[in-house]
Predict the structure.
Amino acid sequence: MSAVAEILVQGKAGEGEALLLTAPISFWGGVDPKTGRIADVRHPQHGESISGRVLFLPGTIGSSSASAVLMELAHNGHAPAALVLHEPDAILLLGLIVAREMGWETPIAVRLDRERFDAYRGRSVNVAENGSLTTA
């Protein structure tokens, strides 16, 4: 399985187990920046770790603090290996840009049609620096 996604924010290529969220998430209050675990008890994947995984986001629930949470995840070493978004979220992605400017390692973020997400479920996914997604 392979696809070429649109690069939203350049970053380190990433490889990891795919985590396809089944519902949008708010990073502010929804993800613990110290552990990388989904903290929102109402989210279907509550308790799952996004750390080191290729995170497929069907959508985000806005908060201007989402960028700070993603930046903290990068700083603490608990960021996803890569982010695959259905729709760009400028606030969330700002966290990657600022983290990179701070000199911290940041994952690549790409855009892929949501209809293609399911093909990666349960697989190890590699997101290359050129935006290509491949499975192991």
